[in-house]
Amino acid sequence: LASRVGPLGTTVFSEFSALALKHGAVNLGQGFPDFDGPDAVKEAAHQAILSGINQYAPSVGLKVLREAIAEHGARFHGQEGIDPDTMVTVTSGATEAIFCVLLGLVDPGDEVVAFEPFYDSYDANIAFVGARPRYVPLRPPDATHATWWFDRDEVRAAFGPRTRLLILNTPHNPTGKVFTREELAFLAELCAEHDVKVLSDEVYEHIVFAPARHVRAATVPGLAERTVTVSSGGKSFSFTGWKVGWIIAPPALRDAVQRAHQFVTFATASPLQAAMAVALRLPDTYFEQLRAQYLARRERLLAGLAQAGLKAHVPEGSYFILADISGQGLGDDVAFCRHLVTRVGVAAIPPSVFYAPEHRHLGQGMARFAFCKSDAILDDAARRLKDGL
Ligand code: PMP
Ligand code: GLN
């Protein structure tokens, strides 16, 4: 076993999906929809295969998809001037994109600032490139903050001479926080001061609930020239298994990421790229419906959790809810989630795994529930929680 993988166990998502299967539990753990995306997009993939789009795509991605990514950025996020030829690389999911950004921009010994709780691949990927993470905890809503928030002094203190990259994730998994333009402007200033690049993971860009609005970090003054935007079609089109992702960045940064990408996967599945171009060009009504459906599912799960006596933070975006489990008398989040999946028949994710070991306690009073599930499943989960807790 190489030392870089020695400390890594099985990801919490695989672990709890396996437990859910074994115990016949309703799986609100790993974040994947139990429904498919639009038929028109499936049809496009089918047609792409039948019409012979079956050999390697160019390493940067099919031109039709890079053009669709550029158009989509302008249409929904006001990100004008994306040159599909010099500013876009298609990757195998956001997961590969994140790894290639770290490979392309961060040296061993550099420091990477990120917020906790973090999406778990950040921590592993920072370690893979021999860099050191500097984590700043997001704080839960309280009497003076209506949403998850961060202490500006704590962020300032995390930046230093070795800081090379800031990782942002908005809308945020697992808190559901949507970073405001003002918060991003503060971070932009700090990054300019320290000449730090930004990886902005925006895979939940279309799952945002009013009054929150998604702000593409790269549209904030001072961030355009230093930001690599990462996204994918998994969440926006309910095809998480397709693993079609991409990065958008100024040419010099795109080049750095592309140099890594060409030797990590070289290229991503061609027919799925062709279909993803169709998806990104779906009419506005598709995206409005997606949001409306997720809002309804959010309300349904919130109601279910409330009936089971679980207080929850209302997410502004993403398809996750963090519920307060501290009063349940079942131990920490890991013990609670194990009890839940084996005895109550519901799988959830213990969020302490999204914190560095020294901050684990911050996640131990919560459990993460995914609401990217059909009504019948959400109702079944609610019933089991009410009866079993
Ligand atoms: N970033 C975040 C915040 C995620 O939640 C996920 C997966 N759910 C990813 C990246 C990975 O996306 P993909 O499936 O496109 O690799
Ligand atoms: N991003 C998904 C989640 O947070 C899981 C992705 C994975 O299994 N790696 O649930």
What does this protein structure show overall?
This is Aminotransferase. It holds the Pfam family Aminotran_1_2. Keywords: Aminotransferase, Pyridoxal phosphate, Transferase. There is one protein chain. This protein has 389 residues and is of the alpha/beta class. It folds into 2 domains: 123 residues, Alpha-Beta Complex (Aspartate Aminotransferase, domain 1), CATH 3.90.1150.10; 244 residues, Aspartate Aminotransferase, domain 2 (3-Layer(aba) Sandwich), CATH 3.40.640. The chain is built from 13 helices and 12 strands. It has a 7-stranded mixed beta sheet with strand order 2-8-7-6-5-3-4, with helices on both faces. A hairpin with a 7-residue loop joins strand 9 and strand 10. Helix 4 packs parallel to helix 5. The protein is globular and about 55 Å long. 49% of the residues are buried. The site of 4'-deoxy-4'-aminopyridoxal-5'-phosphate (PMP) has 14 residues, from helix 4.
What is the fold's blueprint, element by element?
Elements lengths: L11 H11 L3 E2 L11 H12 L12 H15 L10 E4 L1 H13 L5 E6 L3 H9 L3 E6 L14 H7 L4 E7 L11 H14 L2 E5 L25 E6 H4 L8 E4 L2 H14 L5 H11 L3 H24 L3 E2 L7 E5 L8 H12 L1 E2 L18 E5 L4 H14 L1
Parallel strand pairs: 1-11, 3-4, 3-5, 5-6, 6-7
Antiparallel strand pairs: 2-8, 7-8, 9-10, 10-12
This protein binds 4'-deoxy-4'-aminopyridoxal-5'-phosphate and glutamine.
GO cellular component, one term: cytoplasm
Cofactor: pyridoxal 5'-phosphate
Keywords: Aminotransferase, Pyridoxal phosphate, Transferase
